[in-house]
Amino acid sequence: MKFRDITGHEREKALLREMADNDRIPHALLLEGPSGAGKFMLARAFAQYIHCTERTPDGDSCGQCPSCRQHESFNHIDTVFTFPVVKKSGRPTLSDDYIADFRDYMTANPFMDLKKWILTLDNINAQPQIYVEEGNELLRRLTFMSRRSKYKVAILWLPERLKTDTANKLLKLVEEPFADTKFIMVSNEPRKILPTIYSRTQRIAVIRYSDAEVAAILESRGIDAATAADAAIVAEGDVNQAISLAEAGSERLRLLELFKTLMRAAYSRQVGKLREWSKEVAEMGREPAMDFLDYCCRLFRESFLMHLNVDTLQTLNAGEREFTVKFFPFINNRNVLGLIELFDRSRRDIAGNGNAKIIFFDMAVRTIMLIRR
Q1: Which residue of 1, 69, 131, 359 lies most exposed, with the fewest beta carbons within 10 A?
Q2: How distant, in Å, are the alpha carbons of 106, 327, 329 from that of 303?
Q3: pTM, rounded to two decimals
Q4: Helices and strands, number each (H, E), in the chain
């Protein structure tokens, strides 16, 4: 991965180049920002630039030296990848045990869609973590001296998913690393990182892509301009979400239909239908169910904004707009906060491994009382 392969982020690229060119690379660097902003691509490009032996005059890795070729195949001996995995009976919980899957995943999903990684792990209800065994293994591997380069680089994806025991084990290593070791961490939710780890990193904020940049990225993947523009508006800078929207229109339509069914059944007080609806949504699995609740909250906000009659504030696709122009009068200042708080609370309960059928049915019944306000 070279810097020129990454759309935008010229400020961030310049900062990273300057660090490497002046040999002022922090011992622990954190690239933080929203999902789908290309942070992991920047981390990969930076690691390759650090190890490249023939950097180009315009400030990029050459792509031809042995180090660059090894990076392109994810086999550089002085680069270590650490990432969240799931525990399975009889299977270790080390990143290296999943490294073949992770290489394929990085190739197919350079913007690092966590949902697709969960699907790769073949457990739709999984909550991937970085376990304490990984901390022990990382410490063991970094003990060895760098082989081909001046620095060993440990790329840690999603440090917010470090188990507390793992974070505590890595704390000393991050605080006082080996002289030839550099950490590059990539976080979607930096507030969830253990404060003692977070405070010992030098941070670069990676801002979201503009809608035009997202649309251009989608078009480069062979998606037609109209679909790309529509997905970019809804995704709000998240390339992963935009790709999912563009490539899975039927799934998006299903979420909209589930939302319609809930609102109509709640308004007409059809408790039996709400019970059946709750069972259907619960069977989606934890992560898809959480995504659906996020989607519902978004439609509540969009419906409330429609009262302002300012089109530039809307991020709806054609199907959502067709429904929302009829639905928005039911969302007002008397119920919008209550609905969003209800659905947010349900999302937290689902994330906490609560009984999905009970949670969704309780939420649906409470919606009856709110939707008529």
Answers
A1: 69
A2: 37, 7, 8
A3: 0.77
A4: 17, 5
